[in-house]
Amino acid sequence: xxxxxxxxxxxxxxxxxxxxxxxGPGPLRVLMYHSxxxxxxxxxxxxxxxxxxxxxxxxxRRQGLRGVSVDHLLRARAAGHGGRLVGLTFDDGYTDFTxxxxxxxxxxxxxxxxxxLPGRLGGDNAWDPLGPRKPLLxxxxxxxxxxxxxEVASHxxxxxxxxxxxxxxxxxxxxxxxxxxxxxxxxxxxxxCYPYGTVDARAAExxxxxxxxxxxxxxxxxxxxxxxxxxxxxxxxxTAARMLVKHHLHRFRRPTSLQPEGPRERSPEPQRERLxxxxxxxxxxxxxxxxxxxxxxxxL
Length: 300
Prior knowledge:
The protein has helices spanning 50-62, 70-78, 96-107, 139-147, 167-185, 201-209, 240-253, 272-280, and strands at 30-33, 35-36, 47-48, 66-68, 85-91, 113-116, 151-154, 191-193, 214-216, 232-233. By secondary structure, the chain is an alpha/beta fold. The strands form three sheets. Strands 1, 4, 5, 6, 7 and 10 form a six-stranded parallel β-sheet that branches. Strands 2-3 form a two-stranded parallel sheet. It has a two-stranded parallel ribbon with strand order 8-9. Helix 5 runs parallel beside helix 6 (201-209). 41% of the residues are buried.
């Protein structure tokens, strides 16, 4: 696929940095991607093709929006700007981020955050029992992403559910992963993303205590705040029409403030968490009900 053509210009009149009537930057908008490839075996709905990603980025630009890293987005909002900015995130740190997503992000003048796993550099998605093995970025790949203007942040060390981790593992997944990534990239790591989207009060506090500035979840409900930012899952089925619907619904479902709303609760990642639990505990099927007797015969 060629990416040599220039990106479409952002329409004039859509460059406002604030929400309606100058009431601040408006709702927080962060999109959640994972893998970008032509892979059709996708049991967890975490893959978009390069062609689909390009159409989605083109749509954002035609709407007068620009995709940026989460750190960029939060800094802009803190300064009272960012009304036309959308956070773009790519979980897990697959090699196809630099191979397929990066050229398209550059073409449409966007940046993004890639949430990487420093304990699995150069490995694969071994945590997924179903689907193909997808290679993960190496140290060189992460340094390339930083050199190309992307934000590299932590997804933990090994893609572990933090709500089920003991104290030692929780510290390793938060503190150690941040230290490793900072040393590897030479840049302070500011962001974290909860594997599987699962978060509770203990996990959120561990992330805050580890020195991160923010953390991404999916749909944390009352937990929503700087250490449980909500995101919208984007997949291969998200055409222009679906993207527009999600964008408008997002305005009513996402807060404009990042202050915590109340007690923290668990929020599962679509498809992947449900299938993971199903594979861990297969339940026997109940005995089928007896068939009714055919007409004209007597039941035994």
